[in-house]
């Protein structure tokens, strides 16, 4: 059992420190600028990863590798060390057994990992403890949860509104009181201990899906604001109720409140409720 747990831990640590990429299939009207902006990266990084030039014409159907944000080597080493120490304590083996493999860049082989372990591993039996308690009336618990969620939603709206008028800067997440659309939503939710993905496209996949007629204050609402309506999410805001939402607008260059009708109603792509 310990051998299996060690295998899982090693693969998790190795996976955490690896660079991540996403694949994007070029569609009609796509430009390097649009692709870089939607994925919060730069044209230079996309060109380098795919061996293309800025002036090259993108062919429809071409699959491009998109580099995602990664951690620095110093942060990577620190994270690996912490995870290895925790895993070693849990498995009751030296930390070196884990770090020996996570320091290599090649894929780990099962036999190499198993050979580093003692041949005989005793797993102590832990007696099962069953605690008997008096039954309690749980009828009030759902009410407490509803009250708690309502308070969080109100707080999300309050924090978001404090940023009205803040300047829009593409790629900003709150530094110097500047934001882009997904940087604004992730900033507000992070203030409430909820960590959501960085980009609007990934935020649109996070949390519980919410129907349009079931929207509540604090829900994330998503849009396709591209001129040719390419069909994918590239903008996000926070629902305020009364058919209004707050967002960092690239067109207005600041954080504003807009109505969910006409322009945005036609480009509405759905809603999510992170928790």
From TrEMBL:
Is Protease found in the keyword set? yes
Q: Key word Transcription present in the record? A: no
Alphabetically, the GO molecular function entries are: cysteine-type peptidase activity
Record's superkingdom? Bacteria
Q: Which CDD domains match?
A: LysM
Question: Any idea where the LysM domain is?
Answer: 22-66
Where's the NlpC/P60 domain?
150-275
Record key words, sorted: Hydrolase, Protease, Repeat, Signal, Thiol protease
GO BP annotations listed:
proteolysis
Instruction: Give the family from UniProt.
Output: Belongs to the peptidase C40 family.
| Official protein name in the record | Invasion associated protein p60
Q: What organism does this protein naturally occur in?
A: uncultured Sulfurovum sp
């Amino acid at each position: 059992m310990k051998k299996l747990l060690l295998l899982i831990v090693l693969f998790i640590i190795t996976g955490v420190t690896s660079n991540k990429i996403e694949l994007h299939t070029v569609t009609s009207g796509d430009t390097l600028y649009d692709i870089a902006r939607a994925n919060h990266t730069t044209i230079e990084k996309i060109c380098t990863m795919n061996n293309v030039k800025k002036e090259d014409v993108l062919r429809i159907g071409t699959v491009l590798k998109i580099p995602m944000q990664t951690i620095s080597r110093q942060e990577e080493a620190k994270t690996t060390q912490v995870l290895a120490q925790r895993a070693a304590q849990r498995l009751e083996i030296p930390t070196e057994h884990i770090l020996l493999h996570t320091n290599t860049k090649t894929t780990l082989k099962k036999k190499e990992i198993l050979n580093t372990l003692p041949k005989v591993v005793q797993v102590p039996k832990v007696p099962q403890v069953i605690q008997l308690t008096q039954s309690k009336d749980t009828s009030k618990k759902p009410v407490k949860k509803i009250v708690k969620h309502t308070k969080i939603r109100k707080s999300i709206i309050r924090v978001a509104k404090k940023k009205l008028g803040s300047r829009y800067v593409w790629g900003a997440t709150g530094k110097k009181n500047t934001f882009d659309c997904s940087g604004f939503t992730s900033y507000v939710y992070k203030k409430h201990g909820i960590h959501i993905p960085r980009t609007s496209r990934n935020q649109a996949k996070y949390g519980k899906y919410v129907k349009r007629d079931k929207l509540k204050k604090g829900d994330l609402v998503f849009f396709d604001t591209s001129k040719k309506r390419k069909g994918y999410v590239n903008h996000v805001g926070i629902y305020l109720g009364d058919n209004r939402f707050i967002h960092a607008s690239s067109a207005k260059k600041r954080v504003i409140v807009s109505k969910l009708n006409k322009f945005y109603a036609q480009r509405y792509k759905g809603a999510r409720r992170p928790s």
